[in-house]
């Protein structure tokens, strides 16, 4: 059913855009077939790896699929808008207008250009985004404490070892006190991703590297991946916390499993359990891959929650739809009672729809301030 649904944009483009073109039939048929193949990108991904989440073919082909699939979606949207305008004009003037060939070509060029720009912005090593955040009750020793958040790297054929190495180098150059990774580190099995993930072992921070699983880890044997990460210079916080000290000051970093855990028989996210026995009166920063449970975390006295998962909505306008699926949280800061929630746009994103327009990727450095 999923693959049939993804055929719908192709049907719109084939019947409403390609068919009226003043081209020879072989040319129109060739274009229609190319776009039909692009519409089934996720089907071919499943054939290559057994999962729509991990295309296991060359990076250049993954990029080409994303480019053509994105152009197909943009073109289908443009064509639907053009048809809607035509229907309005028909109702007003009583005649159905013919779409000029020049406008049709302009739509095609625009769709391909937007997709190309979107893919180019999606696959970069993101620049550093610097944020100061005020934490009530923060000890004086932690004023100026710097923490880097990486999230939704989706290390895969699209984000291979070379990309991971560049992310690690840019992170280490910040000389942070702590690195936190809020889930969706990978797409693929350990056997396929081992070389691409290995550079993460090089992450360095004075207080180490803390991580939590995201929903994609549960698609690829979460226990094996978490054990692997634990051996790669990371501490996994699965419904647990760590107390960081600076002189007499203390700061609690807690982490939970992902909402999808219960579907695979793994322990469900438990914020209360994660902060159990944490020292009283010490600010708590929570790492939770998805922002959906933020309202509940706020009631438990969390000072700051760091999340990802949404990729910021990827495309401006689409972010409203993504927000509705995540309790209204999609990108940036939110205030929930006394708690602050930050939803990161993501360091990478899922290779199944790798486009960004108006929603830049992030490698995010937080500087904590007393407040």
Describe the structure.
- The protein contains twelve helices and twelve strands.
- The protein has 371 residues and is of the alpha/beta class.
- It folds into two domains: 2-122, no CATH class; 128-370, 4-Layer Sandwich (Purple Acid Phosphatase, chain A, domain 2), CATH 3.60.21.
- Helix 2 (8-18) runs antiparallel to helix 3 and helix 2 crosses helix 5 (59-93).
- The protein has a six-stranded mixed β-sheet, with helices on one face. A six-stranded mixed β-sheet has the order 6-7-8-9-11-10.
- Helix 10 (271-274) links the parallel strand 7 (249-255) and strand 8.
- The chain starts with a helix and ends with a strand.
- The mean pLDDT is 94.
Characteristics:
12 helices, Purple Acid Phosphatase, chain A, domain 2, 2 domains, alpha/beta, six-stranded mixed β-sheet, 371 residues, single chain, elongated, 12 strands
Task: Give the CA-CA distance, first to last residue.
Answer: 51 Å
**Low-confidence region ranges:** none
Please write the string of helix (H) and strand (E) elements: HHHHHHEEHEHEHEEEHEHEHEEE
Strand order of the largest sheet: 1-12-2-3-4-5
Helix segment tally: 12
Helix content: 25-40%
Shape: elongated
Structural class: alpha/beta
Radius of gyration: 23 Å
β-strand percent reads 15-25%
Using the coordinates shown, work out and report the CATH topology of the largest domain.
Answer: Purple Acid Phosphatase, chain A, domain 2
Q: Can you tell me the CATH architecture of the largest domain?
A: 4-Layer Sandwich
CATH homology superfamily name of the largest domain: Metallo-dependent phosphatases
CATH class call of the largest domain:
Alpha Beta
Quickly count the domains.
Answer: 2
* Number of strand elements: 12
């Amino acid at each position: 059913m999923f693959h049939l649904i993804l055929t719908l944009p192709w049907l719109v483009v084939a019947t409403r855009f390609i068919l009226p073109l003043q081209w020879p039939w072989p040319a129109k048929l060739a274009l229609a077939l190319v776009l039909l193949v692009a519409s089934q990108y996720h089907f071919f991904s499943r054939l290559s790896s057994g999962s729509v989440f991990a295309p296991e073919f060359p990076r250049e082909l993954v990029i080409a699929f994303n480019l053509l699939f994105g152009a197909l979606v943009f073109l289908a949207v443009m064509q639907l808008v053009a048809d809607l305008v035509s229907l309005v004009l028909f109702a007003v003037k009583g005649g159905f207008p013919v779409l000029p060939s020049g406008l049709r070509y302009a739509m095609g060029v625009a769709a391909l250009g937007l997709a190309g720009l979107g893919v180019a912005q999606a696959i970069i090593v993101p620049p550093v985004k610097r944020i100061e955040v005020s934490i009530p009750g923060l000890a004086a020793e932690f004023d100026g404490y710097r923490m880097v958040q990486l999230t939704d790297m989706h290390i895969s054929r699209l984000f291979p070892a070379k990309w991971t190495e560049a992310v690690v180098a840019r992170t280490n150059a910040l000389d942070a006190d702590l690195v936190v990774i809020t889930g969706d580190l990978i797409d693929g099995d350990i056997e396929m991703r081992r070389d691409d993930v290995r550079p993460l072992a090089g992450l360095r921070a004075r207080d180490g590297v803390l991580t939590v699983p995201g929903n994609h880890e549960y698609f690829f044997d979460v226990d094996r991946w978490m054990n692997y990460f634990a051996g790669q210079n990371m501490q996994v916080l699965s419904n647990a916390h760590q107390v960081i000290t600076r002189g007499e000051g203390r700061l609690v970093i807690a982490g939970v499993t992902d909402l999808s855990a219960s579907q695979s028989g793994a322990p469900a996210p438990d914020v209360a359990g994660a902060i159990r026995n944490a020292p009283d009166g010490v600010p708590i920063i929570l790492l939770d891959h998805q922002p959906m449970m933020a309202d509940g975390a706020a009631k438990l006295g969390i000072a700051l929650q760091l999340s990802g998962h949404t990729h910021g909505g990827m495309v401006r306008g689409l972010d409203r739809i993504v927000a509705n699926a995540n309790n209204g949280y999609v990108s940036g800061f939110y205030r929930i009672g006394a708690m602050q929630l930050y939803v990161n746009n993501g360091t990478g994103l899922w290779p199944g729809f790798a486009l960004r327009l108006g929603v830049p990727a992030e490698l995010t450095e937080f500087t904590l301030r007393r407040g």
